[in-house]
Amino acid sequence: MAHISLQNVFVDFPIYDATTGRSLKKQLMQAATGGLMGSNERGCIVVRALKDISLDLKEGNRLGLVGHNGAGKSTLLRVIAGIYEPTQGIVNIEGKVTSLIDLSLGMDASATGIENIFLRGALLGFNRRWLTTKIKDIVDFAGIGNFIKMPLRTYSTGMQMRLAFSIATLQQPEILLMDEWLTVGDADFQEKAQIRLNEIVRNTSILVIATHSPNLVQKTCNKTIKLVRGELAEQLD
After folding, report:
1. Are 72 and 9 in contact (CB under 8 A)?
2. For the chain, where do the domains classified as CATH 3.40.50.300 start and end?
């Protein structure tokens, strides 16, 4: 049974090339970042990206994360995905997670398309033997033909994204994480990509999506939280 539990989660990013004595630089950084500025016990400036976040999501929940740029939405998604470790607090995730935050994460420009299928698939937790049986499906869906045997650096940006999307959406997840609604490739590919994405969203147990679109939240989500400078400012469900 899919479940997301965050208890009093904090995420801090130390800024090693700045000190608390550089008052002008500190003021500029406070203006530029969405996080909260402070310093640790060693005098190193720290940006607090998330502050005391608690969430409990169960099967059937469709959560929309809203807030301005720098509010901490993407950071929170990365914590749930396991990309960021919290500085404080407890994160407990039950269920298979697919993250569509960064489709190209873990892919190597010098490796062939086939090698990248295994690289990206390993990050997604796919069984290698099972993945081997799906290579043709991936190639056919991405529409890249014999380029699958060529290094990724020879691909156009569109081809790279089509391959990455085809790998990431190969298996139905229990928990789906998205940073805005995803559009990939040219018009022809977008049509079949949206059909696949809609099916995955419909069948996923828990959806967490960061967005600036009120219409998307209204259409897709049954819970909404608003983040302001890394803090849970409002729960709108």
Report:
1. no
2. 3-95+210-235
**Helix, strand, coil percentages in the chain from 3-state DSSP, rounded to 5:** 35, 30, 30
Q: Which residues pair with 55 in a beta bridge?
A: 6
- Three-state DSSP state, 21: coil
Amino acid sitting at position 17: D
Domain 3-95+210-235: which CATH class?
alpha beta
In 3D, which of 225, 236, 228, 229 has the Cα closest to residue 6?
225
Q: Is 66 exposed, middle or buried (0-12, 13-18, 19+ CB in 10 A)?
A: buried
Q: Which position has the token pair 């269920």?
A: 95
| pLDDT tens-digit map of 132-184 | 999 999 999 999 999 999 999 999 999 999 999 999 999 999 999 999 998 88
Q: How far apart are CA 18 and CA 25, in angstroms?
A: 8
Go through 76-95 and write b for each residue having 16 or more CB atoms within 10 A of its CB, e for each that does not: bbbbbbeebebbebebebee
Beta strand residue intervals within the chain, DSSP E: 3-19, 36-39, 44-58, 62-66, 88-94, 97-99, 175-179, 206-210, 223-228, 231-235
pLDDT digits (tens, 9 = 90+) for 5-46: 999 999 998 877 655 455 545 554 454 445 555 555 555 788
Give the C-alpha separation, 81 to 79, whole Å: 5
pTM for this entry: 0.84
